From TrEMBL:
Domain Flavodoxin-like as annotated: residue spans: 257-395
Name of the molecule in the record: Putative flavoprotein
PROSITE patterns reported for this sequence: FLAVODOXIN (PS00201), FLAVODOXIN_LIKE (PS50902)
Signal is among the record's keywords: no
Cofactor needs: Fe cation
Length: 569
């Protein structure tokens, strides 16, 4: 394999590209299956002042600095502009700043926060730019900044040079592909790589990407200077409109379901059509695919654009037919783990196919929207009705899932933020702890509630020390745990204030439990609790209480769950 190197190329007036190249796949691309190598593109703009845009990550630190020093004295670099900040760049930045201690770092505000974590004491003067900020390098090189945050890169920043009409697009419009070609002449050869890059890095954040594309389109760019892969000169308008189409497709894919099947004698096909009817009745958009009739390459594209997949197969000779084996391989390598799965099939006596499918899909980490369905030979009317029902259930489960998934998963580069994010993924049910003493009622929203003992039935609840209620929760005190249903009403009410007491209780209908504890009208269930013990834990008290009695008030209701982006949100 060709060794790593740095390709240097002038791309516009006083503007040089330094492309750190690897023909191998980099560590950070673990998610990226197309092994075509990559380039980390850095740009040097020499106006009256010198700006270096986007030094590469640590895989290239030494070769990049050697190549840079041959062309530019680092001691004369005025600005280092960072389209995004991550720890992978930390090592190169540290080495670069030793050679260029005079340089000012330029990045977005979230970028500056991440830099503080990465560089610590060694952080030099840093300018956090806003969306309307400009940096005049002299010689008519005026850098205009466009903030393009996505949950994955909250601090992303693109830069436009109004002299050269070059738009430095950081993560946008790139591709992980390595070669000698700097620009994209014969652009069609890159389209599959660019689409794959989009699917891996942009598609999950389609809403934010669409908004950012809109901002970028305001710059009259003649060249997209990408962060990775070939620069976009020849495919500029087509790639821009393809990005818009792809984001739009992504936003409408929400409840599409890929229903893949094969059927030698028509029985599994009958089941497939019944499941499809059920799905459609419940509002899903079904892509029904007979795997014997489709080019396997098309299966990946279909599955990548759906929120769930269902696979049906007959058992033939104790196995899956080849077309289903192929389809399964494609599905498992393409589908996102958040996609919901389903399995069905007709059989004659042993019926291994459904178990095989379910086992592989389960082992790959997917969860199911219905229990696998097996039908012996020809489906009866009852079987067909059952297939329709599970189709509809699957569509509803999909809707619920999408509602429950947090709108934004903000990824971060600092270890602390990553830990907080991970802690934030622990979900808890939304409850209101309510207590009354001396005619004073206090009510506080909590989501850190957990059953702790079976005998006696006991639970722990964490209550903020800042909330007024903690003084009502000493050993022997009684309180009610009101378990809230999924409802916008409660979300809105508690968005205003989490801790409610005094006059602000007036808009709530509060009854009493049998033991006289405050019961919130509209609660899904309640538990009458007696505090037994408490532990001093940082900014919270952890209360252990015994549930003395309780009742589910709405048997059909679903408990509200508190999804968070981070431990602090
Ligand atoms: C050649 C052949 C092999 C079969 N092997 C099995 C088998 O190993 N186990 C089983 O349960 N059924 C087996 N069957 C029965 C089929 O699974 C059954 O007929 C099923 O309804 C076919 O579904 P389809 O109409 O969707 O193709 C076999 C059928 C044929 C024709």
């Amino acid at each position: 394999m060709q060794p790593k190197d740095v390709q240097v190329f002038p791309i516009a007036a006083e503007t040089t590209l330094l492309r750190s190249r690897t023909w191998d796949r980099l560590k950070f691309e673990a998610e990226y299956a197309r092994q075509r190598g990559t380039t980390a593109n850095t740009y040097l703009i020499r106006g009256d002042r010198v700006a270096l845009l986007d030094p590469p990550g640590e895989s290239f630190t030494q070769i990049f600095l050697s190549a840079l020093k041959e062309r530019q004295d680092p001691a004369e670099i005025d600005y280092i502009v960072l389209g995004h900040v991550n720890s992978n760049r930390g090592k190169t930045l540290q080495a670069l700043l030793e050679l260029a201690p005079q340089a000012t770092l330029v990045c977005s505000k979230p970028g500056a926060i991440a830099l503080r974590t990465i560089l610590g004491d060694r952080l030099p003067e840093t300018v956090a730019v806003r969306g309307d900020s400009c940096l005049d390098l002299g010689g008519h090189h005026r850098l205009e900044f466009v903030l393009t945050p996505t949950p994955r890169w909250p601090g992303e920043l693109c830069t436009y040079d109004s002299k050269t009409h070059v738009l430095y697009t950081d993560k946008y419009f790139g591709a992980h592909v390595c070669g000698d070609q700097v620009f994209d002449e014969g652009a069609a050869i890159y389209r599959a790589d660019r689409r794959y890059y989009f699917d891996c890095l942009m598609a999950p954040h389609a809403v934010q990407v669409a908004a950012n594309l809109e901002k970028l389109s305001k710059k009259p760019a003649q060249l997209y200077a990408t962060g990775h892969g070939p620069l976009v000169r020849y495919d500029l308008s087509e790639l821009s409109s393809a990005y818009r189409d792809w984001t739009q497709q992504q936003q409408t894919r929400k409840e599409a379901v890929a229903l893949l099947y094969a059927s030698a004698y028509g029985n599994t096909g009958t089941m497939a059509r019944a499941i499809a009817r059920g799905l459609e009745t419940a509002g899903a958009d079904v892509k029904l695919v007979d795997c014997e009739q489709i080019d396997p390459d098309a299966i990946g594209a279909i599955v990548a654009n759906t929120a769930g997949f269902v696979i049906g197969s007959p058992t033939l000779g104790g196995h899956l037919p080849t077309q289903i084996q192929t389809a399964l391989g494609i599905v498992l390598s393409t589908a996102d783990k958040v996609q919901l799965a389903g399995v069905f099939g007709s059989y004659g006596w042993s019926g291994e196919a459904v178990d095989l499918l379910a086992g592989k899909i389960r082992d790959a980490g997917f969860s199911f929207g219905f229990d696998p369905i097996r039908v012996k030979f020809k489906p009866t009317d009852e079987d067909i009705a059952r297939c329709e029902t599970v189709g509809a259930e699957f569509a509803r489960a999909l809707k619920r899932r999408q509602k429950q998934r947090p709108a934004r998963l903000v990824s971060s580069d600092s270890q602390t933020a990553r830990t907080e994010q991970a802690v934030g993924r622990i979900v808890g049910s939304m409850c209101a702890v309510a207590a009354k003493k001396d005619n004073r009622t206090e009510l506080v929203l909590v989501s850190w509630v957990s059953q702790s003992t079976f005998d006696p039935p006991g639970l722990t609840v964490a209550v903020s020390k800042a909330s007024g209620i903690e003084e009502f929760l000493h050993s022997g005190d009684h309180f009610a745990l009101n378990i809230l249903p999924e409802s916008k009403r409660w979300q809105k009410r508690f968005a205003k204030e989490r801790s409610i007491h005094g006059d602000t209780l007036a808009d709530l209908e509060i009854g009493t439990t049998e033991n006289g504890a405050p019961l919130l009208n509209g609660a899904l269930a309640y538990l009458e609790c007696r505090a037994e013990n408490r532990m001093d834990c940082g900014d919270h008290w952890l209360i252990y209480a015994v549930a003395e009695s309780g009742k589910v008030l709405d048997l059909q209701g679903v408990t509200a769950v508190h999804h968070r982006n981070s431990a602090r949100a």
